[in-house]
Fold each of these.
Amino acid sequence: MGTFFGSSIGRKFMMGASGLFLIIFLIVHLSINLCLLVPDGGETFNIAANFMALPLIKFGLQPVLALGFIVHIVYAAILTAQNNKARGNAKYSSGNNTKEVMWASKNMGILGIVVLAFLTVHVYDYFVPLQITGTAPEVHGTHMHDTYTLVKNNLQNPVKAILYIIGCLGLALHLTHGFWSAFQTVGLNNGIWRKRWTIIGTIFAWAVSLGFCVIVVAMLLS
Amino acid sequence: MKLDSKIPEGPLAEKWSKYKANQKLVNPANKRKLDIIVVGTGLAGASAAASFGEMGFNVKNFTIQDSPRRAHSIAAQGGINAAKNYPNDGDSVHRLFYDTVKGGDYRAREANVHRLAEVSNDIIDQCVAQGVPFAREYGGLLDNRSFGGAQVSRTFYAKGQTGQQLLIGAYQALMRQVNAGTVNLYTRTEIVDIVMVDGKARGVIARDLVTGEFQRHFGHAVVLATGGYGNTFFLSTNAMGSNGSAAIKAYQKGALFANPCFAQIHPTCIPVHGEFQSKLTLMSESLRNDGRIWVPKKKEDVDAIRAGKLKPKDIKEEDRDYYLERRYPAFGNLVPRDVASRAAKERCDAGFGVGATGLAVYLDFKSAIERLGEDAIRARYGNLFQMYEKIVDDNPYETPMMIYPAIHYTMGGIWVDYELQTTIPGLFAAGEANFSDHGANRLGASALMQGLADGYFVLPYTIQNYLADDISTPRMTGEEKEFVEAEKTAKDKFAKLLAIKGNRSVDSIHKELGLVMWDFVGMARTKEGLETAIEKIAAIKKEFYSNVRIPGSSEGMNVELEKASRLADFIEIGDLMARDALNREESCGGHFREEFQTEEGEAKRQDDKFAYAACWQYQGEEKAPELIKEDLTFEVVKVAQRNYK
Amino acid sequence: MENNINLTLKVWRQNGPKDKGRFETYKLEKVSTDSSFLEMMDILNEQLVNEGSEPVAFDHDCREGICGMCSLYINGRPHGPDDDVTTCQLHMRKFKDGETITIEPWRSAGFPVIKDLIVNRSAFDQIIAAGGYTSVSTGGVPDANAIPIPKDDADEAMDAASCIGCGACVATCKNGSAMLFVSAKVSHLALLPQGKVEAARRAKNMVAKMDELGFGNCTNTGACEVECPKSVSISNIARLNREFLKAKFQD
């Protein structure tokens, strides 16, 4: 297996597999966030959010998640550097007029940076106060954070809300290519499934992204 | 000089087995000590080089292109023949042999053709094992289709890209040997001379087309698999780089050039449309399986079409002249190529040609589309139809294609004996470069068969018979005086071309030569015309050597210099073709002398006088070549007037 | 219908691999729209030779779209502004009167320029030599019909095998990746029982060679498939990924 990580397809596999893993994380994240829309003053959401702070998750799954992000980002950097080298120093003076190529597919790096920037803000906004600096006060009889209030306060700042919406849109575009591309890269694709993965991927990307956006807007207006 | 064709004794069907049983072999330890030079990487060259490598010889393989896969074999569309008889329609080795000799208008050597038919089945097996994706039936077995000049379906095909798939199969086998280190590949390298030591071919002088450097290469034997010389005509279906230079070098070193006038004119090419045109594109003969060829019956319809007032589909059925079906009811649209080409010319000469120039006939798929549906036609010929549409900007599903004959293949070539050895010991010729198997006309789907037969199944045997006596010949270093002198001569030739510094581009002179060839040495030849051609070619030669302009130098890549050196050789070939055509006072296959035709305008052979291969021996510059005859005897085939009616 | 157009050509000229290279501009008048792009180049070269200057060097051979030799990057696209064609099949009717046409060589670290518009594509040969074949020698093979092959598999193999090795995929790829080329060969042979025998070995060796030669990594943009003159599908790339990963996981 020594050369697996040294091979182009091996590296691409790490990229695709970590991407798919992060997609699963997104599904979990969105599911919990949708609790914000339950009109009970944040009770349901807080219970769900508190679940994420359980030691098993905090010390068991969070490092895995972090690793997923790191692998995805590190391999992206390695692949991009290699690809730039392979392209060579001479650029086409007449540019590239190939049509029918998805814009997102050619700009995954930029979109990735947008998502990464958003992620940094996001971690600073929630992860840090909730799981690092903050101590859990008592809410409704148990020791847990009032995450609901934290979210609400945060997103009622219109600048933040807009920032979050931009981040979500970047994520959507990243996923429109990333979703089917991951299946292609790990070899789970063919002529028929390609269309299916593209459609599923596009629906998924926008569903996830709009799901988050709806929450942002709901919080902004609440 | 007395020619010995070395045909083995015994009954025709046993000659090849007998030869193999009795020939000399080289043992594995000695094979490693022997070097073979193979020039060309088409079907014959690549298959020979790969096979030699597999056997353990050291091979040096040369190509002028950037990769072996570019050789023009790749452009063959229709298919490859074999006597498998999978469709159970009465085919056999004997029938394939017979059809080929008959198709060649009884001007080929029986023993060679029979061997070709014998090994044809092995070729298909070999190619399938290599992963050539031949067309298949739903049952998973191989599909066949019919081709001109045969009443059985014996043609194996891979869409309209059979040549490509076969060549890639051979190319892959070759690259496997390159990887194994048995074959050294020299790309973008052109052979500029053959080196002779003590009367034997012992190497080549090559020129690196990128750096312009000259190289000396030694080989215990040299195989020329450099294709045909159709580009003498400038416009042909050959690739731009296809040339006859290696053949001419061999000829000038003493190898005989046989039947140069036998050039095949392919009936289904896209017509010429302007003086800037660089090549003619062939539309596969397989199209004649479903396409029907016609011109209008009435002159007024012809005029209306040429004036653009009528479209071909406006012409009613009863006003169309399906002239091949009319003249040849038994074979109809599937008559051999020479017959179909001449019939098209006859109609156009009579004033019934269509298109802006009047030099075109229709190839119509209307009835096939009605019978089978557009989808079935698309599945069979989709890529060809697309290719036609890209070039002509017409949709052949809706309007008939326009086609006209063009120079396609040269049956003539370097004279070889049964072992594919030329008159120079140690110099072999394979594929289209030799003259051996197709007589005066080649049947469709037989070129691929011959190229691969020579490379996979003939040369690997016969070359051993030669090399077995050469095992104690040590490798030469290239410093021997013969090599040094040959390199100097070659360098001087290039310097001489560069020094002319005249006013005309190479192409302009080549086009002039091409026109003379087409007008006088083309589809219909006459004594007067050929004499005129010889004079005109001499004038072109003079013009070339006094007025060609080659910019740049001999260092680095110089495309004009490459073209000029090839044109110098095309001029020699053109002269040879005209002389041979003038000598052959009969009509046979691709060679049609207007003086010799039946009342119905069919080719009329003169078997009592011309049942021979005309072999030309070089006598030195500015001297006429000498004719040497190899008499053809037919023990099995009954020589008769070809009849496709 | 035939028409004549006037053109301005911006052509890349480079004397050799080490030369820096530059664009030269040429005017060409009355080019028939029925002529092919390479015939237009012939006219340009005829003009240059008559002026006593060196003609533009460009690769070309069969001029019927099958040898894969022609390789020009025209107005931002390999093989120019038509779909499913090679440069030699591109016709001047695709251009407008007075248009400026920019003509460049394939650009990729894997394809260094030799002269003007000619690049070195021998990397493709090296990749094939690394494993793009079935390891059978001449003779001693079974009858061609001994193993039935489902028609669909044979047809799919044929589609993959129709690659002409021109390098347009690499030329257009923003990553300079040769995955379409490699995957077409791996697919062609993996789909057939004759090639399946050494499918794992082949995939590993060809990918290793491709990486060694400095081609980039595929990011599935699909540009290669759009520009492929033979419409080779990137489904082949998925198959290559599958074959390669399967081979590696089995190790």
Amino acid sequence: MKKLFLGLAVLALGSSLALADEVAHDHEAKHGGILVHNGHHHLELVAKGNTLELFVRHEDGKVEDVSGAKASATVLAGGKTEVVTLAPSGENGLKGTGGFDAGKGTTVVVNLTMPGHETEQIRFKID
Amino acid sequence: MTRLAALLFSVLIFAGSAFAGPGHDHGDGGQGAEAPSAAAIPRLVSEGSDVELVAVAKDHTLTIYLDRIATNEPVDGATIELNGEGIPSAKAKALGDGVYEIEADWLHEPGANALTFTVMAEGIADLLAGRLVVAEAAVEPPAQPFSWSSVLQRPEFWMFAVAIGLGGFFLAFAFRPLRLPPDDTPRVAATPEPATPEAPLARHLRQAAEIVLVALVLAASVPSRGWAHEGHDHGGDGAPVQAAGNTPGKLPTGEVFLPKPTQRLLKVRTAPAATDKAQPGSELVGTVIVDPAYEGRVQAPMEGQIELAGGGISFVGEKVAAGDVLALLAPAMPVFDRGSLQQLTAEVEGKLRIAEQKLARLTRISGDYIPQREIDDTKTEIESLREQKRVLEPKAAERLELKAPVSGIISVANVRAGQVVGARDTLFEIVDPKRLWIEAIGMMGADDGAVSSATAIDGQGHAIPLTYIGRAPTLRQQSLPMLFRVEDPHASLAIGATVRVLVQKGTPVEGIIVPDGAVVRSTNGLPQVWIKMAPETFEPRAVRTSPLDGGSVLVTDGLAKGDRVVVQGAELINQIR
């Protein structure tokens, strides 16, 4: 009986350590973009030229399924605003293109609606 | 024993019925009051890179307050464009003072709206996002506080009713009419007799009645909040403090919620804290004196009578130049002096007459009988005597001119025409109010070499820069007086006035320099500053300060770099309760 408890305790400790390790690892941008923590999500925005790509992860590091998500981005670049619709692309990515040219000072506000959730608003500023 | 038990039991019944109420009653009331206040005013707060935005919805209007993040200055002349899903995009109308307005018909539909604001102003281009939650159309439960049906559903009502019923039963039983004795007369006769034994049943009942009465009195005297809560509930008690709304107030955390309209009224401004090095200052008490080189005094050199100078008599406040005649002094001559002067005059006049006669006699004789030397001598003698006479003659009517020794303004004039003054009397004092010094007392020690800068603060709070001149080696009032020159005298600086002198000396200390007005006193007397945490939230922060100069204070502890310190309006935020 005692041995069983001990074994369980070790198991619990080990799994919690493993979990902690996983959480600790995921505070960096995986795609070289800007990372923003919002609610339970880690969102990363990669802006290159006229393309925006948004990657959504859960805060524990797991990728989120965004195939059912709706997203639009308002882009302020060079004194002009433009609304871009982002469509699911890839595992946890949403992608959209527009007539803007992203660069330093570009501000992007993404409205992301995950299926069954309220709209999230995330603000990115490219420095 | 049974009596005591019965008493306790009764008290418990009455008091218990009273106590049962408060717990439930109170909680319900609090929640009921919370709901409408939180939902009353939909509010959106958003911070961008340079600007912050607060949008408040009222009826069908969205009022937007736009301010700079760092300074809290309202941003005027911006164009704000509103976008949102299912919302017609709209441009805001500027109302001035950083306030904008958007007519929004969608505000009456409940739900959460994700809004995006595009803000364009001079040097600012920003996107701000926020959610505006419009609550369900305010279906406030009207007049919920009290209704009979709700009372009937409560268990405590029934407990109370049962308790009252029991009490009533006891009372009725105790005071029930006793059987009348068959005959009246023996009873009347019997009453004065105290020792008359009562019927055992009647005595028992009387005891029961006493118990119930005592119990009632006790139950009524038990201090119970429950009774007050039976009829009405205290709606406001449990309500949270200003979760929303437009009323400034203190939050339970000690922070202050200050809505933007109030911030505009109080002209609240902030400045980001930046670390700096400065020498700590110490405060001394100083007195304004005049630069000794520019202070003049006119004294009477001898006894005499004051007479008017050409331009009348000089008065306090008159501007004079060095050499100006302030008054005339007619020296008074003692009787003895006057006599000897007259005697001398007569003597000189006599001698002169003799010499003139001699010269006339000598010149009348012609030929070389008279030596030329004698004639010349006589002429010289006459000239000498004439000179003596000339000197003696005007003595009686002579006036001394009293002249200003320095340029400046007359500060003291103790003189009237005709006044008789003694020698050494001070008649006028002249100072130059542009040349002021300050003598400060209060600093111990002798290391005067390190005084880097000094400032005087006058009664009106003007900061006046000073230059250190030196310090006296002699103790005065247990400290060594220090002298400072006032570089640019303020008009309010009066000679003799007491001023605060802030002296900076010693090794520089790292800290954050904030304006004097930013540091206020907390209710417990500690110095504190207010930090802007969110567009409408301010937090007090206790700090350690050290005086610098009149206008600023060095915060050595309690502030972090980048904190947005309230530099204007802190005193007013401090008053919010």
